[in-house]
Design a protein that fits this description.
The structure is a single chain. By secondary structure, this protein is an alpha+beta fold. It has two domains: about 70 residues, no CATH class; about 55 residues, no CATH class. The chain is about 35% helix and about 10% strand. β2 and β3 form a beta hairpin. The radius of gyration is 20 Å and the shape is extended.
């Protein structure tokens, strides 16, 4: 039997919805919805997670705690979702020239999404992000935010 991803068992994971000028997209584990339903693959359409009742949530939390306790004994060598601190693993990977447990691209895209959320929160407004150019376009306030741009110490530079 294959180990289930760690977040699949979390009762509060309900997904996220992004709203843009040309439409919206909503994602959760095993679900994808968007303003143009024809773009959604059949195997992901129409399976939106519903909000749980308080009783269901409590039952799931108990089951999740039980599964977590069982996994604690089997953690060694499992996928990155349930393993030890990523920073130490990254340092160890650099030293050993081995691949880290989590792909660099996953860490980068996760960090980008978190920073975008923090920038929007601090600016107290939505921000327009272009993932193709990794930029805010004409939004100078967002582009000048401390989480988007960092002045490197000489002689280091990003470009």
């Amino acid at each position: 039997m294959t180990e289930q991803p760690y977040l699949d068992d979390m009762p509060d994971a309900q997904g996220i919805k992004f709203i843009g000028t040309d439409g919206w997209i909503e994602v959760a584990r095993g679900y994808l919805g968007c303003s143009d339903p024809s773009l959604v693959p059949e195997d992901l359409a129409g399976r939106r997670p519903r909000n749980l009742t308080d009783e269901e949530r409590e039952a799931m939390r108990k089951e999740w705690a039980k599964r977590r306790e069982e996994r604690e004994q089997q953690r060694e060598g499992l996928a990155f979702e349930i393993s030890a601190p990523h920073m130490q693993n990254f340092i160890d990977a650099v030293r050993s020239r081995q691949k880290p447990i989590a792909p660099i691209e996953v860490g980068c895209s996760t960090n980008t999404l978190c920073c975008l959320g923090n920038i929007a929160t601090e600016l107290e407004r939505p921000v327009n992000w272009n993932p193709a150019t990794l930029s805010f376009g004409d939004d100078k306030e967002a582009a000048g935010h401390r989480l988007y741009y960092y002045e490197y110490r000489r002689p280091y530079s990003l470009i």
